[in-house]
Amino acid sequence: MLAVIAGQGALPGVVARAQPTSPLICSLVGNDPADLSVDLRFRVEHLGSFLADLTTRGVREVCFCGRIDRPAVDPTQIDAQTAPMVPTLAAAVAGGEDKALRAIVTLFEEAGLVVVGAATLTPDLLPAQGCPTRMPAPPATESDVAVALNVLGDQARADVGQACVIRDRIVIAREETAGTDAMLDGLGATTLADDPFGAAMDVVGNVLDTAADWLSGSENAPPASPRRGILFKAPKPGQDRRVDLPTIGPGTVARAAQAGLEGIVIEEGGVMVLDLAEVIADLDARGMFLWVR
User: Fold this and answer.
1) What's the rounded Cα separation, in Å, for the pair 205 and 236?
2) CA-based max dimension of the chain
3) Smallest Cα–Cα separation from 257: which of 276, 235, 279, 272?
4) How far, in whole angstroms, is CA 285 from its chain's centroid?
């Protein structure tokens, strides 16, 4: 029997409804999924009892999916079955994202449960390599991705974030504990119309580039349009891909557009896409691209 340890958002519902047999839906108190009825709620202070309950119910596999806010732990509420887990739980609460997840996964595995990734249960959420949108990724996107990969390495060492925003090889924003949506919301609109200084500098750069071409005798091609930046998202190096695999969806597209970005780049096999058809349609309507790299 499968139990879905569901967090916030739409992903738990997508995963649960894709299974041939309805799984047991469990949720940490205060983190119910968006559109899924919860069968069993639990508290961190009662994790030992919860794991014993799962075993009694015949659960053999668990899948973690959805966003969970880090809970405050009340030491006075810790029950007898959870007390032996306190050192591991304390390390999880105090550590970064990956460290916390690894600690929790270890406790589930020690209880005899097999942890299965959401992407393993719903492989259709992983789009094929390529650019499914009408708008292709501009050639210069590759150099932005190179910068983003370095940022991802920094985020892995800091144990935080799976996304960043890059424009012309410059880091505009990095995802922190609040998540991708908060990062994009914090950017606001960064279109040229809202950034007159940046627009002016782009125009100056184009004029200088054109003058350099003329002086060098190269063809006088029209100046390239100013780049508006990309959202890059991928798992952190060394991340346990059974848990917390990055996800994007229509809401991500709306926020990226509001921030004035020109496209989204995700790692093939490393980022799940909710409502892929809608995501592609939204991007096409906005003249943006998706590159599964």
Assistant:
1) 34
2) 81
3) 279
4) 23
SS3 70: coil
User: Tokens 């974030």, residue?
Assistant: 161
Cα-Cα-Cα-Cα dihedral sign, residues 236, 239, 243, 245 = positive
Q: Are 157 and 97 in contact (CB under 8 A)?
A: no
Of 69, 76, 75, 103, the C-alpha closest to 89 is: 103
Identify the CATH homologous superfamily for domain 126-191+228-292: LpxI C-terminal catalytic domain (3.40.140.80)
Q: How far apart are CA 17 and CA 21, in angstroms?
A: 9
* Token pair 């848990």: residue: 243
Residue 26, exposed/middle/buried by CB under 10 A (0-12, 13-18, 19+)? buried
Which residue's entry shows tokens 């599964």?
A: 292
Q: Is the dihedral of CA 179, 181, 186, 191 positive or negative?
A: positive
Rounded to whole angstroms, the Cα distance separating 7 from 30 reads 9
> What is the amino acid identity at position 79?
D
CATH number of 2-123: 3.40.50.20
β partners of residue 77: none
pLDDT 10s digits, 134-190:
999 999 999 999 999 999 999 988 888 899 999 999 999 999 888 899 999 998 654
pTM (global) more than 0.85: no
User: In one letter, which amino acid is 14?
Assistant: V
Which sign does the torsion angle of CA 37, 43, 47, 49 carry?
Answer: negative
